[in-house]
Design goal:
Chain lengths: ~425, ~425
């Protein structure tokens, strides 16, 4: 049994505890929690509930199709897609706890979406974005404190997402195994080209000079660190707490003869030591948690030399809101996309100067369209590796992320910073686009 | 008597209350507050004090030359410039309250700087920047609450700086009278070219379409509003509370036949009404005060349509520190350069998405070099309009600002934002540099 296979089972056990009403029911029709007298009164209640539910979401143009074929479309617009509930119990559960239950019911195949999944989810995001802010939402933002990603907890969280199998990620990531937003310098670019463009764009933003030293925080499968050493003549120390990614990256470094200039270290960002000219971190800050940003900043302050600079790319949001509980529990434990304000905790206490912030959310939406397409093309293979529920859960996660970036619920911040007073930098950005 | 002449007198009265030890003293040598026995003990005390003073500033490479020609240069490095104290009383005053007294003593000619004034001031900024952060400084930042720029107070503050005479600003600003950082797309650009480049750069970042409406907050002498109407085919409403700037801008609009498409309104940002496609504000936020940013943001939320976007350019800083008291009292009452974190108060409560932040501090340093050069070339004319003290005060202010940008103590943030979920935007910045 390969380590990946073990991880696969761990994923299934931890992420999807058996539901109480029994997935294993042979008939395939779960025992409803709510009695189902097909009477008019019940229908009236459900219609009322569905209407109220959709109004609470600021009336997105979506409809519901119930288990008996009846349709509810309270929106004034024609629905762009419909949720098809396969049984009454699922309908009630989703109405009462949609944030968690919708994802679970979708994964279990107890409901379907008739229409394009991304379009459906984007419609929901856009309706929510257009809703006026409420005082209760503002209050909740004020109370928000983020996740507790301790040293041990962080390792466990990362293991649950990234160590479920390199073979799985190979099916739908690009050849370089980059699992963060690409850069479509040209909209028609392939995913491989856009990921390569992203790496070079990041390196250009750091105006690296041969012989410099770079520390990478969260190196994934190693593509950026290897490219830095190969194409930019720098030496790299790349930190990661995903064991299987580190193993993969070390194999690549050895195979390419770069292992003398790239060191992959299995350790937490809090334990980074040494002094470097530049720091880079792509798609890792999301796993740190806002309450640890000062600690992250302290590490940067400790590790960057007097002319040090850095680039941090992170999924972000416009206002602090908690991660959707389904994503948090089933897909990405411990993840939190920061606001720009929260990100300033990385820089301000250490007097770093922020030089450049670029919001690349539309590039991440495009990246996710590519991933989703590749994922669908390999859905049969994924089902063999895991099960049908896993396929549906990841489809929803990828489509939901795509919709969130396309609809503006998620941002992608690429932030360049430097020690205060460093003047040996290009005075305009023009050469990034030359 | 022209209104400008009146303003000139108001400036002299308000900004420079007569010092207690008597500027009008005929002999030119003020009565020292401290007795001057030219004994060794006094010299030892003064040497100790100067050394302590410079160490407290983290030992910048500067020296002191005392009234009797003796020199104190405690720095290990050769001094890049020397402060020449013309009398003992001035030395003691500057040692005891440098933030305010240095500027006053320099303005009064009671001390001089031997060497390049910008180089001297930059050395001080760089030494301070290299100093480790102290807990007391961190505490002070925590207590910082910013200025009280009420409706009435703001008008008075703006009047004191901007209404001291168009003729004065004409002597050293570019022909378009732009009093904010230029954009040196090419380092060799003239000031006129760089100011024009700045205006077009700002317009390109707003991806304006002909027929759209733009609101400008703090329009100065009107150059941007006129260019928007002339070259970008939009209609503009430009707000300002500087009466003499508004009068100037209206004359230009009429002369150029643009008065049907550009309206200059003499009113506070808090009173802006109407609905616009875009908002622009250059070098005005510095006068708002951090505690009013939510109010500023509320105005933006009220005034921007569903696909609205905006650009705000403001002097900024890496950590919240109060404006130097001399600048605050003598030059720019009510001014405060925000941190990026403070600026998020403009956007986050209204769910605006920040799309782009560019730090252009080196461009402002270059702009100030041009201004200072032109100012020096017109120093005789300025002295005729005001007096020698005014010339020295403004020389110190311009040189000090240049040094602060060059040394990294001040930043220049240009922030582009939009309503959440606006996708009809260029996906890369490449066309800004095409």
């Amino acid at each position: 049994m390969s380590p990946n296979r073990q991880s696969t089972r761990a994923w299934a056990r931890k992420s999807h505890p058996p539901l109480r009403h029994g997935v294993k029911d042979a008939s395939g029709r779960p025992k409803p929690l709510v009695p189902a007298p097909a009477d008019h009164r019940m229908w009236a209640v459900e219609r009322w509930l569905a209407g109220r539910f959709l109004r609470a979401m600021n009336s997105p143009p979506i409809g519901f199709v119930l288990w008996d074929g009846r349709e509810i479309s309270p929106s004034a617009q024609a629905p762009v897609a419909r949720v098809v509930f396969h049984d009454r119990a699922t309908f009630w559960k989703v109405m009462l706890d949609p944030d968690l239950r919708f994802g679970d019911a979708y994964s279990d195949g107890r409901l379907d979406v008739a229409g394009d999944l991304v379009v459906f989810l984007e419609a929901i995001h856009r309706a929510r974005a257009a809703a006026p802010d409420t005082w209760s939402a503002a209050l909740l933002r004020g109370l928000h404190r983020g996740q507790a990603n301790t040293l041990h907890g962080a390792r466990d969280n990362i293991h649950r997402h990234y160590d479920i199998g390199d073979d799985f990620y190979r099916l739908w990531l690009d050849g370089e195994m980059l699992y963060s937003g690409a850069y479509f310098a040209d909209a028609a670019m392939t995913l491989e080209d856009a990921q390569r463009a992203k790496l070079h764009y990041v390196c250009r933003k750091l105006w690296l000079r041969p012989g410099e030293t770079v520390v990478e925080v969260g190196g994934g499968w190693g593509a950026l660190a290897l490219l830095l050493a190969r194409d930019y003549g720098v030496t790299v120390k790349s930190f990661n707490i995903s064991r299987s990614q580190i193993a993969w990256a070390r194999r690549r470094a050895k195979a390419e003869g770069l292992d003398s200039r790239v060191e992959f270290v299995e350790d937490d960002y809090r334990n980074i030591t040494g002094r470097f000219d530049a720091l880079v971190s792509l798609g890792m800050l999301e796993h740190v948690g806002a309450r640890y940003y000062r600690e992250f900043g302290r590490m940067m302050d400790r590790c960057l030399g007097p002319t040090g600079r850095g680039l941090i790319q992170s999924i972000g949001q416009d206002q602090p809101t908690n991660t959707n509980p389904w994503i948090e529990r089933r897909i990405f434990p411990g993840a939190y996309p920061p606001t720009l304000r929260e990100m300033t905790d990385l820089f301000e206490p250490w007097r770093f100067s922020v030089l450049d912030v670029e919001n690349l959310r539309l590039h991440y939406a495009q990246t996710l369209r590519h991933w989703l397409q590749r994922f669908e093309a390999s859905a049969g293979r994924v089902a063999e590796m895991f099960d049908a529920r896993f396929v549906r859960a990841w489809r929803l996660y990828l489509a939901g992320s795509c919709a969130a970036f396309a609809g503006g619920a998620l941002q992608l911040f690429q932030v360049v910073f430097a020690r205060q007073g460093v003047n040996d930098i290009p005075s305009t950005r023009a050469r990034l686009y030359a």
